[in-house]
Design brief:
single chain, alpha/beta, Rossmann fold, 8 strands, globular
Length: 207
């Protein structure tokens, strides 16, 4: 992504995990771990939305680690419908951010996986910021968000997302009274609107 991008090889439950680390200029505020969309539909850590999330975090002073789920790229193993992927995310956190400030972010399937990692980590770790984009609520059982985490979470969804309908995200968010930021006219991949997505994330991280 930039000259400060480093390639990492981490240890996963079923073998190696391929990852990239982006480092900000100056002191780091902490480590943000970003999860990518569905592996069986071409999702990787190089996805444009994932890269946009990484850029937003780096701009705001965070060290960012994005990684390939099991079975993607050079990561060992095979797709596990989110369960193994959530454990992989937790293993990544253990290795790249064993202590100190932590942030989590995910896009689509990655948001679903991140939601379960968040519930596992909440109360054990100080998680300063969370970002869910295009949350795959119509396709997977996205975990409810701890009430005490609400003020630290940004949920962004495209109004015209035809992969994950906005209505399904509202059905997930409504019982929790969890606010959802809707991008007018936005699709699942935010074509033509990635700068707007980035600005929304930067605003959240700077708040």
């Amino acid at each position: 992504m930039n000259s400060l991008t480093q390639r990492l090889t981490l240890a996963g439950e079923v073998g190696t995990i391929e990852a990239l680390q982006d480092v900000p200029e100056g002191d780091s505020r902490g480590v943000a771990v970003v999860a990518h969309p569905h592996p069986l539909f071409g999702g990787t850590m190089d996805n444009k939305v994932v890269q946009t999330l990484a850029r937003a975090f780096v701009q705001c002073g965070w060290t960012v680690v994005r990684f390939n789920f099991r079975g993607v790229g050079a990561s060992a193993g095979a797709h596990d419908a989110g369960q193994g992927e959530a454990r992989d995310l937790l293993r990544v956190v253990e290795q790249v951010a064993p202590d100190g400030p932590l942030a989590l972010a995910g896009f689509s399937f990655g948001s679903f996986v991140t939601s379960h990692a968040l519930t596992a980590l909440w109360g054990q770790r100080s998680i300063e910021k969370v970002v869910f984009v295009g949350t795959a609520a119509s396709r997977f059982s996205v975990a409810d968000v701890p009430l005490s985490a609400h003020e630290r979470i940004l949920v962004v969804h495209g109004e015209q997302d035809d992969t994950v309908p906005l209505s399904s995200v509202m059905d997930w968010a409504r019982p929790q009274t969890l606010p959802v930021t809707v991008v007018p006219g936005g699709g699942h991949f935010f074509h033509g609107q990635l700068p707007l997505l980035k600005s929304l994330v930067v605003r959240h991280l700077s708040a």
